[in-house]
Each structure stands twice: as structure tokens, then as C-alpha cells.
Design goal:
Blueprint lengths: L16 H6 L2 E4 L2 E4 L4 H9 L1 H7 L8 H19 L6 H11 L2 E7 L5 E7 L5 H16 L4 E3 L8 E3 L12 H18 L1
Antiparallel strand pairs: 1-2, 3-4, 5-6
Helix pairs in contact: 4-5, 4-6, 5-6
């Protein structure tokens, strides 16, 4: 996998792969941003430590085909995360369309230990399929912990791993701090 040509500019990184893919779009003081608007942006995303960890050491082509498949997966995840409790048939179909390009095969290794092998149609499907499969894992584990940031102006999502499950913001340093400042200002003005 190539090393990224630049550092990852996103404000929230390190989330599970499916959430990390959703967070390739963000809004800040300068406006809207899209990391996956080019193959160069794809290289940055593929080079981020959490993505590399999720995909393992399998080679992934950094090209238009991989980018298109990743954008297809992100669109499917957008639809799925919009209605977690009652997904629309289009959301189910979109996610299943991505998942149809890969599978998990269980096997017994030569050392006698059970193993798992991911098989995808072509290497360009690996990131997209892995993100969709990761989303299923999160749904099976704790679907109530998949959340959008509580800031209405923010488009980021996160997987709440806090002990009591009460995280509200993509980041306390960003959205959480701005909300606290607005509440403080509102109290002082009244």
C-alpha cells in the first residue's frame, strides 16, 4: 500500500472503517471538504493508519476503479446510517450490492488454528467491501452507538465507545467546545 503523499486533513480519524469512510466528507470554517474527490485523496485515505490496520497487508490499487467502488460503498453507508432503526429498502439493496462483491471464508490453518480469509471479486473491491462488512459488525455489536455528531452543522459520525454511551460530539475540542461556548454566551446575554 502506498504511503500517503500528504497528511490526512480530516478532523476526525481513527473510527471503525465504515465510519471512517463516512467521515471522508466534513465541514469546517473554510466550508465543505471532500477527501475522495481524486485518486490522490484515495491514496491519503488508504494510507491512514486505521485504514491500513483494517485492510491488513493486502495490496489495493490506488486508481479510479477503487475510488468509484469506495464512493459506491460510502453512498450505501450514507443511506444505511440515515435510518438505523428502520432502513429503507434502497439502503438495504445498496449495501447488499457492495457486499455481493466479497465473502468471508472460514478454514482450518496448517497449524490447526481456525482462520478467516476475505475473498473479493477484484482487489479494487477490498476497501469498499471491508467498509460495508465493518458496518454489519457494528450493527451486530451495538447499533445504538453509531451516531451523527450532535452539532446540526456537522456531517461527521462516530462510534461511541465511552463506558456509559453518552458521547454526543464528533470531538469535544471542535463541535463540543463550540456548543459549550454558545450556551455560555447565551447565558451571559440573557
Amino acid at each position: 500500500m502506498p504511503s500517503p503523499p500528504e497528511t490526512d486533513p480530516r478532523p476526525l480519524i481513527g473510527e471503525p472503517l465504515s465510519i471512517d469512510l463516512l467521515n471522508t466528507r466534513w465541514i469546517d470554517a473554510e466550508g465543505r471538504h471532500e477527501l475522495l474527490d481524486s485518486v490522490a485523496g484515495l491514496a491519503v485515505w488508504l494510507g491512514s493508519p486505521s485504514v491500513r490496520r483494517s485492510l491488513g497487508d493486502r495490496p489495493v490499487p490506488v486508481d479510479e476503479q477503487t475510488l468509484d467502488r469506495l464512493l459506491q460503498a460510502r453512498a450505501a453507508l450514507d443511506k444505511a446510517v440515515a435510518a438505523l432503526d428502520r432502513p429503507a429498502p434502497e439502503a438495504v439493496a445498496a449495501l447488499n450490492d457492495v457486499l455481493a462483491h466479497g465473502l468471508v471464508r472460514h478454514l482450518l490453518g496448517p497449524d490447526g488454528r481456525p482462520g478467516v480469509v476475505v475473498e473479493v471479486d477484484t482487489p479494487s473491491w477490498l476497501p469498499a467491501w471491508s467498509a460495508a462488512e465493518d458496518f454489519l459488525r457494528l450493527l451486530a455489536d451495538r447499533p445504538d452507538r453509531i451516531r451523527p455528531c450532535a452539532n446540526d452543522e456537522c456531517v461527521l459520525h462516530f462510534y461511541d465507545v465511552s463506558k456509559n454511551g453518552t458521547r454526543r460530539w464528533c470531538s469535544m475540542a471542535g463541535c463540543g467546545n463550540r456548543a459549550k461556548a454558545r450556551r455560555h454566551y447565551a447565558r451571559r446575554v440573557m
